[in-house]
Here is the input.
Amino acid sequence: MSKPIEDYGFIGNMLSGALVAQDGSMDWLCLPRFDSDACFAALLGTREHGYWRISPAGGPQRSSRRYLPHAPILETTFETRDGTAVLVDFMPLSDDPEKVDVIRLVRGVSGRVTMRMEMALRFGYGKTIPWVRRRDYGIHAVAGPDAVELVTRVPLHGEDMCTIAEFDVREGDVVPFTLAYHPLHREPHFIGDAQMRLEHTETWWRDWVRICRLSEFESPVWKDAVERSLVTLKALSYQPSGAIVAAPTTSLPEEIGGMRNWDYRYCWIRDAALTLYAFMNAGYFDEAGAFREWLLRAAAGAPNQMQIMYGVDGERRLTEIELTWLPGYENSVPVRIGNGACDQIQIDVFGELMDALHTARKSQLGPNQDAWRFQQTLLSRLEGLWREPDEGIWEVRGGRKHFVHSKVMAWVAFDRAIKAVEQSGFSGPVETWRALREEIHREVLVRGYDKGRNTFVQHYDGTALDASLLLIAEVGFLPPEDYRFRGTVEAIERELLEDGLVLRYRVEETEDGLTGEEGTFLVCSFWLADAYTMIGRTGDAEALFERLLSLRNDLGLLAEEYHPRLRRQLGNFPQAFSHIGLINTAYNLRRVSGPAQQRADLGEPPRADDASRNRAAGAPRDEPSLD
Here is the structure.
């Protein structure tokens, strides 16, 4: 029986990450990178597919856990009849991306506790049993190109294709276990003192958090939530390149037993661009600069070959395949690695990218001529592409459509380019861009707006709603007081809310090419809170934000979705998009010029239908024509 997603904690070191359950079992670990093959894959199968558990031999009477302050270091306390022991899990920082360690420290707190360690290494996502040999420091295990050393002073023995140890800890005892990865062609590296490495890791993270602008949050709950989300995003970054993965896991389902299971261990331009906002508003300009440089490297080349996502080093080929030997989380199949959406056309990415780079240019990062030349090549492609249908922000697999959000973000792309010329002194065909901006704006108001219901719709000539429409005011396409935006917010409240949380769309009304249902998308609920803030419904925004905070697990982590009826989190975990939403909404609620307002301020006030822009309600006047 699979454990609930909320049962897991996440540890990471900006190279890779692991999920550790409350019972002390590490059920997911990919080495040496986030997108490498897993050597512990019990999360998507059974213990036969690899795990590493350290816990009291007879089971605890009680257990509790917490993160150490300011760091992705997990501490689990086990209380037994004979005493208390603590398990500390962390991944030390590494200067060598091919040599990655996982350290687990067992500390005796009181009495005497008999602990049991069980490790089943299974390379290749649970398929390959390695060749294990004893060493004076522990064991050496190898399979194909991969090798690991398990370093410990505790005696080890084999049992049913697993490595086992039993040992006692008393008050003051510290027993370390280090799993050290290296490619087979390289020599094992010197491990070093585990306690000293813990102290070094704690110090690094504590110094990093000191940069964060948290003083404006009076509520300790809000302050802790924002800090934990920032630490999680930082741990999800790939330090050598500056990329940020959407999540450290693959194929955790959006519907239990369903097929909506995807690999999120890659860098989406959209997600990373929004992460840039979260980092910059918290004062982390080094991270924002690193992403800008990664983007220029990853997307370099012909503009018609820009992808919506890349591997952590900028890889373009992310071939999607199914792992048939894994039964899936709670029998949710298929288990997929790779992501076929990398070949999709998603026009909104152009706007997110231009918006993020414009914000970076106006911030402490300053201008970048190479970035501007890159943006001009993208705009030359967008001049024709914006008129085409696409797969949209939600990566539908049921055929391309003229998604309204995609058109709005195409407007954003040209708007930010115009601002670059007007405000930053860059050169470009600004009159052409102004004409395109006006044309897109006029078309969206005619084809993407339902006058009878006073709401924008998911795609041209359709009736379904879409949570991405909540971003129309945030990006500056319309002012928040516009009756059409307010009407859209109200329509989404009527039609997309489930138990007060927001669906991205109604699956029965959207041809997304998949069967089954899904939960509410957490980032969409944060968008609704942002929309409330922008239209002056601050009380509603704060109430929704508090509700969303209550959905986090005991460690402050969020997955992609929440199912109100099942009352559980769903999807890949922890999810960067959800934590981005948490951070930005918190700043929106505590700043007049938070991230949402900041994005709107960057936009050019719409020229079409100016007479109606400032009316908060009422029937629309004559709409513009496409002729």
